[in-house]
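DM from R.C. (forwarded with permission)

"hey, sorry to bug you on a friday — could you get me a structure for this? deadline for the figure draft is monday and I only need the backbone to look sensible"
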Amino acid sequence: MDWRENVRRVEPYVPGEQPNKKNMVKLNTNECPYPPAPGVEKLAREFDCDNLRLYPDPSSKVLVDALAQYYHVSPEQVFVGVGSDDVLAMCFLTFFNSDKPILFPDVTYSFYDVWAQLYRIPFKTCSLAEDFSLVAEDYMQPNGGIIFPNPNAPTGVMESLDTIRQILDANRNVPVIVDEAYIDFGGVSCLPLLEEYDNLLVVQTFSKSRAMAGCRIGFAIGSKEMIGYLNDVKFSFNSYTMNRPSLILGVEAIRDKEYFEKTVAKIIATRERVKKELTDLGFHFPDAKANFIFASHERVPAQEIFQALKERDIYVRYWNKPRIHNYLRITIGTDEEMDQLLAFLKEYLRGR
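My reply, with the result:
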């Protein structure tokens, strides 16, 4: 018998490229184009590195309390983790243990099927409609749990609370997880529905709208019972998930609401301008409510545009997958970065 026979093998998640080139335009990983709140930088400069020899608080109390106060819930309703990926992975491990398949869209965050395979969870994908919207009726079949992003990734499509309520009403006996990584860019959160549905869990992140992807902070809000189960699994996995700098910097990011709102408003304004310019260039796309646009050109294949952009050190995201092989996901950067992208596209498409 070979030792390799008992290795757990999975098809891993493939993140966007992380090039490090001077003067590149990086629009491929949905990072915030602006720095974190000024108070975050101040605290980072003042951080006492002697504290790094000590373990962080395993309960992450300072950050949990700050999030609870901001979102008007009790601390017992808040769970934090190392980015929303860590939180979501804990959710898969905690809540999806039925012999029935979990359900998620066929075009969605590509980590979902990776976690399902890693944890040996049966799953079934539900096809999005032609306009990339969810078909609520598809989630009314027997299942072991449901998860979907809202707005969706990589499409940027935002579902209404009515659609989410339909899914929740039909699935009161299984966990329903709504991944709201991009909710701050014009979406309507389903957090208010927590008062009606004790099986609903909402997951968000500091990586996008709060400009802290490098700190890895994610969180979930749900019923006290659901959060209790998550903590039980977390403490059975790794007690010290959140590092000391992330805890204190995360609290400071939450405090500066004015800076947060101004940053989000700038990104939204740029996104709406770029939508118009891309339309004039012959692109079409769903109405994005995220910090990216999921665009396809009327004449030129997406893969060809992707390669041409890359040769000019302009990075966007491309997947050679069914249904989306002719789309590019373009992160919204600064106005200057988007102008460079648009200028290249105008020049390139003129000759095509």
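R.C.: lifesaver. The CA atoms of residues 272 and 288 lie 9 Å apart.
me: no worries. The chain has a mean pLDDT of 96.
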